[in-house]
Amino acid sequence: MFRFFSHSKCYLQVKRVLQGREQAPWPAHHVAAAQKGSFSTIPVDRSSRSDLWPKDVGILALEVYFPSQYVEQVELEKYDGVEAGKYTQGLGQRQMGFCSAHEDINSLCLTVVQRLVERSHLSWDSIGRLEVGTETIIDKSKAVKTVLMQLFQDSGNTDVEGIDTTNACYGGTASLFNAADWVESSSWDGRYALVVCGDIAVYATGNARPTGGAGAVAMLVGPNAPLALERGLRGTHMENAYDFYKPNLASEYPVVDGKLSIQCYFRALDQCYAVYRKKIQSQWQKEGITKPFTMEDFQFIIFHTPFCKLVQKSVGRLLLNDFLAAPKPDTESGVYKGLQNFRGKKLEDTYSDKDVEKAFQKASLEIFSQKTKPSLLLSSRNGNMYTPSVYGCLASLLAQCSAQQLAGSRIGAFSYGSGLAASLFSLQVSQDAAPGSPLDKLVSSLSDLQTRLDSRKCIPPEEFAQIMKLREDTHHLANHTPHGSKDNLFPGTWYLQQIDDKYRRAYARKPL
């Protein structure tokens, strides 16, 4: 694994960020402090000049964790007695990862954070903010973030800001925004921010169970990133809806209105895309660019993925938005060929219109194949991870493209959380794809994703159902030791050892 986050390089990076600003009056003792590696003594005064913001704040490193066992969706179709293709063709799912009795939200996040820090050769005291996005609540008071602080214990670093953020599948995106905003704020002390998204998506027996999954993603956030968040380009939509929610705190299972949830997802996508287009076109006008923004201006597009078929429909949905917004779309040739009969449609009237859905899904098939399909590797083979879902799609895209293919591209990202909260934002990929560049190292760090998926153990549906029943029966038990073997866990995985009579949880790590 690469070592571009070594202590010395980290400090040099901070020094460059602070010194590489025109007319920035940094006293000599502050520069000396940076050279000695004292993050906390470096001031970041950007009160009077917007160009003093750190440059290209975004994702420096990314790590993924998913369970070591899975069930085949085609076998689950047979076990559940549904028609062949219902889960595989209808939902677009191949496999579904699931957790053993020894894994909970804390262990998932412990594992992915430890893995990111170790593989990136980070020091624990180089992290100044840690945020967790999750909807998997095992304690109504104690945050997952506080459990993760045990990883910092030996370093003595307790000066770590941030806490958990919860709103269905949106918490990870809110945490990423918070982390980036911290780096660009007067509170930043020069250290990295770390964002963790993790969830265990489980459903009661029935037609929703195949849309489950589990996993965690950790992202290192800082300046001079190979994946920079484009400043000022976020389209957000929020409203009150009961499409998916978890009112029964004694159960892991949600209450789901599937039809309403899909309508909410599409409506949020429409609204976020409209706001994003307005903002980027405003930026372009200031630069003398007058053309309208369309989906073609994204080289890649990733989505929160409850199931893969919904994402394919969402690409068609964006094409519908472009079509209805175009002053004079060419319906005789090109991507809009044959769509003239839909010209008079209104977006708000099309959420349940199957003719519109089929027509634009077909018209956007090539766009989907080029811009989005590569991002669905993890979603199709591991399932819905909730908060990490869209970032698992980002990892999949990076794992299946070369640095040269990604360099200079704009990646659109749509994040949705029921209830509801949603944002469409974009990442600008660095132009530098040279060997050893930050982009090359980031892409290389995820090159083993396919191999890791292939190394999991396939579990028969009957055994999967037994494990799910055991999770249901032991959920929130006190004075409890998890049942079953830990042998199937990946090396280096954190796992739950014991819950005592006061509900305090103890964890251990499987040797590497």
Fold blueprint:
Layout: H1 7-19, H2 28-36, E1 58-65, E2 69-72, H3 73-80, E3 95-97, H4 105-119, E4 127-133, H5 144-148, E5 164-165, H6 171-183, E6 192-201, E7 213-222, E8 227-238, E9 244-245, E10 255-256, H7 258-286, E11 300-303, H8 308-325, H9 354-363, H10 365-371, H11 377-382, H12 389-400, H13 403-406, E12 410-417, E13 421-429, H14 438-445, H15 449-454, E14 457-458, H16 461-474, E15 494-499, E16 505-509
Parallel strand pairs: 2-14, 4-5, 4-6, 11-12
Antiparallel strand pairs: 1-7, 1-8, 2-3, 6-7, 8-13, 9-10, 12-13, 15-16
Helix pairs in contact: 1-2, 7-8, 8-9
Can you describe what's shown?
With 512 residues, the chain is of the alpha/beta class. The chain has a single domain, classed as Thiolase/Chalcone synthase (Peroxisomal Thiolase, Chain A, domain 1), CATH 3.40.47.10. The chain contains 16 helices and 16 strands. The strands form four sheets. It has a nine-stranded mixed sheet, with helices on both faces. Strands 3-2-14 form a three-stranded mixed sheet. The radius of gyration is 23 Å and the shape is globular.
